[in-house]
Amino acid sequence: MKAAHSVSDLVGAGLLTPEAGAAVADVAGRYAVALTPYLLDQLAGATPGDPLYAQYVPSPEEAYTAPEERADPIGDVVRSPVKGIVHRYPDRVLLKPLHACAVYCRFCFRREMVGPGGEALSSEELDAALAYVREHPEVWEVVITGGDPFLLSPRRLTHIVQTLSAIPHVGVVRLHTRVPVADPARVTAELVAALKGADVATWVAVHVNHAVELTDDARAALGRLADAGIPLVGQTVLLKGVNDDAATLEALFRGLVRNRVKPYYLHHPDLAAGTSHFRPTLAEGQALVKALRGTVSGLCQPTYVLDIPGGHGKAPAAPAWVESDGTGGHTAEDFTGKRHEYRG
């Protein structure tokens, strides 16, 4: 089976009728489409209500851009001092060596920037980006993203990680990827070996939004990473119609922890163009976070975050559990919803 990169491919795979394909032709012309053969196999017979289908198959709703949505919702461009670098926080930078992915999520906050043939850094541009890291001693962590860095060849990954490892002030290299759940066979022993540097700690952040993504193949790919001593964290986007209920999130977070992936962030969806149908309200997200407290252990609790538009970074968006009572004391809410006085 071949990968799907167009509406006609999706029609041929039985995921869209010809009429539905015509209805999303303009959407697919603006926002890239890609599904791996692995995902096409997982989606055989799926319909629009399926949690995988909604994440990857374009819908007519994407043609609507809400007034508050923007092409660069988290301000990558305004925080980019050098091509391929985003320096938003003092002690860490994003390094974006490529803008291509194995799959293109319908809610992606970089959907205006990524796609087939998406701009990759040339050797000279990559050298300049790495030089920026070398010249800024405050940078302790380098987050390799894009695009999906697991699409890079092991040779190029080795070069990047080893170069960063040789920079004395860099302590952590973190790679963000969808590949373990979207194309798990790509997580080979050679790729895993390329991720490790002698003088840095390598972490991998796996983007996964529903427990159905944790198939046998995906779990095996995660196991290859964990068995190599690479710590794994999970990033999840809260998506209306996909995972916006407590039972679904509980199953996902338990599944991640069981596979040695610590749930790290639960992202409120960014204001990317054409994604309003995926966004619950912040109040709905906060209610879900409350529903998980006491239901699953602390290992299964990610931080609910909102990326502030314009490049101002992430803000924790969880509800307040401890509040001032206005008299110098506080009340603290337990996992059952009862509030208790606290003075101290």
How would you describe what is shown here?
The structure is a single chain. This protein is α/β, with parallel strands linked by helices and 344 residues long. Helix 10 links the parallel strand 5 and strand 6. The chain is globular, with a radius of gyration of 21 Å. The chain has twelve helices and twelve strands. The protein has helices spanning 7-12, 18-23, 25-30, 37-42, 51-56, 123-134, 154-165, 179-182, 189-194, 216-227, 246-258, 282-292; strands spanning 85-89, 92-95, 141-144, 172-177, 201-207, 232-237, 261-267, 303-307, 314-316, 322-324, 330-333, 339-342. Helices cover 29% and strands 17% of the residues. A nine-stranded mixed β-sheet has the order 1-2-3-4-5-6-7-8-9. It has a three-stranded antiparallel β-sheet with strand order 10-11-12, with no helix packed on it. The mean pLDDT is 95.
Q: What is the secondary structure topology, with strand pairs?
A:
Blueprint: H1 7-12, H2 18-23, H3 25-30, H4 37-42, H5 51-56, E1 85-89, E2 92-95, H6 123-134, E3 141-144, H7 154-165, E4 172-177, H8 179-182, H9 189-194, E5 201-207, H10 216-227, E6 232-237, H11 246-258, E7 261-267, H12 282-292, E8 303-307, E9 314-316, E10 322-324, E11 330-333, E12 339-342
Parallel strand pairs: 2-3, 3-4, 4-5, 5-6, 6-7, 7-8
Antiparallel strand pairs: 1-2, 8-9, 10-11, 11-12
